[in-house]
Each structure stands twice: as structure tokens, then as C-alpha cells.
What we know:
Belongs to the group II decarboxylase family. Sphingosine-1-phosphate lyase subfamily. InterPro entries: GrpII_AminoAcid_Decarb (IPR050477), PyrdxlP-dep_de-COase (IPR002129), PyrdxlP-dep_Trfase (IPR015424), PyrdxlP-dep_Trfase_major (IPR015421), PyrdxlP-dep_Trfase_small (IPR015422). It holds the Pfam family Pyridoxal_deC. Keywords: Aminotransferase, Lyase, Pyridoxal phosphate, Transferase. There is one protein chain. A 7-stranded mixed beta sheet has the order 1-7-6-5-4-2-3, sandwiched between helices. It has a 4-stranded antiparallel beta sheet with strand order 10-11-13-12. The protein has a two-stranded antiparallel ribbon with strand order 8-9. The protein is built from 12 helices and 13 strands. The N and C termini lie far apart (about 60 Å). Helix 3 packs parallel to helix 10 and helix 4 (about 85-100) crosses helix 5. With about 375 residues, the protein is an alpha/beta fold. It has 2 domains: about 5-35 and about 280-375, Alpha-Beta Complex (Aspartate Aminotransferase, domain 1); about 35-280, Aspartate Aminotransferase, domain 2. Bound molecules: ligand 0PR. Ligand 0PR binds near residues 84 and 114.
Amino acid sequence: MENLDEIVSQLKEWYSRTPKHFEGAILGSMTTWPHPIGVYAYQLFIHVNGNDPVVFPIVQELEKELLATVGSLYGSRYGLFTSGGTESNILALFVAKRVSRGKSDVVVAPSTVHASIDKACLLMGSRLVKIPVNPLSPVDPDILEKYVRDYNPFAVVVTAGTTESGVVDRVKEASEVALKHDVYLHVDAAFGGLLIPFLHKHGIIDSDLSFYPGVSSISVDLHKNGRAPIPSSLLFFRDETYVGKACFEMNYLPSGMNCGLLGTRPGASLVASWAVVKAIGLEGYEKQALLQQDTALYLFKELDSREFVEVFKPVLPIVVWKSKLYDYVEMVKKLFEEGIFLYKSPSLQAARAVIMPHVTKAHVDALLKALDKIHARSGFD
Length: 381
Ligand code: 0PR
């Protein structure tokens, strides 16, 4: 057996080489440094199986509280805690298929939809029909309606904060289409769920996010802008009976039931999410959203002032730009070599920076410095 001291020193060595969000290099992913109270709660409840509410009733109690607090933003307290946007999206479509009668085995969504919707459809053997859209614009409700009329889908998915450009589909208009055609509407707000209600309140964005009458479910990730440890997400339903449709009979379990896709699951992340949401509070998320948006606009303005860049105006704190010197894959690679980690936005052939809660203006300045450096001596300096 290996000496534990050796393992610890090996772990410490790996840890020192692992990038940490607060150091400023992680600018492309939608992850962030978790709130310390979440880390504390996670460690304390590390032994808890979230799939066993009989032995660990705290799981159910805190899930209820968490749903009520966050759900007050959208007008529903029914739903379940999941492991992330992917599980939430798969479950939402699974429930949609279970509750829809007389519809085709088709899901309709704008082409900006997240890849987990493709995954869900592949898993269920359903066909995903994508509406070609400009990645910088929300889907046109009239075109959405045309697709719904033509395909008679069992579900429609729109996104409140798209992965590649942060665009917000118009949930209210999509809800009217869903209501008129009696079709299940799922809103993927994995990224935008904890930004949109606040930015809308302050008049920064037009669209709001809510359970308008035609909306059946909304997913909101807590391990993104919620600052909870990974894996943490919420899936809300408009109707309590839909929650049951996301559950499966499992007679040998004390509760006789298993809800969600995972079996044994980290109860620690649910308790940690509760602690983080309690500590930050909705007012804290509101302040944070305004700060994120402010930093994103700062980056946008700085990029816009550079001749070697074409930048798109951010809707949510996701800033996307192209270089006039490099292909976007090459630009992301060059910046990686400078110690800055960005993601790609293939639909726009551009680089993507996400201004998550840990990102400061100093981090943005370091990114700008690296960008200036790789464009120096190019005729653009
Ligand atoms: N819906 C939207 C709109 C998303 O942007 C994402 C993920 C999901 C659903 C899926 O969420 P989970 O990853 O929690 O299941 N967006 C992340 C991003 O763009 C995706 C990601 C995936 C990041 C894998 C890193 C990675 O290694 O940053």
C-alpha cells in the first residue's frame, strides 16, 4: 500500500499545476470558483446519497427550499435538483415525450440549441429538427410557429442564453406559440437563468424569463452563475404532476422511487447549493449579474476600439469576437499559449469569453494584453 503522505504530496503538486478561476486564465468556460460555504457544506455532507430521502430526509427538505427560493424568480416551485444542464435537458424532453399524445416523434429547436438537446434526442430515438437561425438573433416566433405547424412536434426547445453567443430567445412569444398549438415548451436557461430576471428588471435586456402560460419547463444551472460546486442544476416544471413523470419505480429502494437520471447521486452538491443560495441570496445574484454585465461591456468596448478585431455586442455576459489576422481556431490556440483559456464559437467562427462571477476587469486587461501581443508586428499595431 502506498504511503498516504506520498499521495498527499502528489495531490498537492497536481493542485499547484491546476488552473484556478481566481487566477484569471479561465475566461472561456461557464464554470466558476464555487462559493466557500458551498465547499464547506460539500465536505460536511460528502457521505449523503441524494437518491435516498428516507435515510437522508435533509435531501428532500433542502431540495424543496431551494426550488422555492430560486423558482420564485420564474413563478414555479415544482421540479428537481439535477447534476447539470445536460441531465435537466434530457429529463425535460423525456417528460415532454411521456406527457404528449398524438404528436410526432420530433423536437423542434433553433439551430443555436445546446448539444445536450441533440444528445437527448439521440438517446430517445427522436428526431431533432433545427430551425436555421442567425446565431446573433433570437428565433423569429412566426418561423417557430411555421415549424410547429409543419412538424407537429412533441416538444419545442428555446434557449435563454445561448452557448455560443448568449442570445436570449423570446420566451413570451414562444409560449404563445406553444399554447396555441398545445405543445410542450422547454426553456434551456442553464446559463441565463440567474442573469435574465435581474438584467430585465434593470431594463438592460428586453426579454424576461418566466413561466408564461405556454411554458412547461425551465432549466437553470447552479454550477454556472449560481456559484454552487459542480454538479448542481435545477429543472422546474409548471405542473407538479410533471415532476412524477421524471421519476421511476424502484421497489428495492426505501422510497420505492428514483427521480432523475442518476441513481446514487451526490447529496453533498444539493446541500452545498442550498448553502450557497442562502449565503448569496437573490439580491446577491442581482448585484453579481449587473457586475458581470458591466465587465462584459468593458471588454466589448475595449475590443471594439481595436482595429484587428470584429466584436459582437453582448446580450448577456458572453463576448464573442473574430480576429482580422487569425482564423478563430488559431486565435484561441495562440491565446492558450499565452496562458488564456477561451472557448470557440464555431457558429460565428469566433472566440468566446464568458464573464463569469470570478472574472474581474484585471483579468480582462490581461486578456487584452495577450491579444495585443499576438497581433503586434502584424501591421495592426
Ligand atoms: N445548456 C446550455 C445553454 C449550455 O451552455 C450548457 C453547457 C448546457 C445546457 C449543459 O450544461 P452542463 O454542462 O451543466 O451539462 N455549457 C457549457 C459551456 O458552454 C458546456 C461545457 C461542456 C463546458 C463541457 C465545458 C465542458 O467541458 O461552457
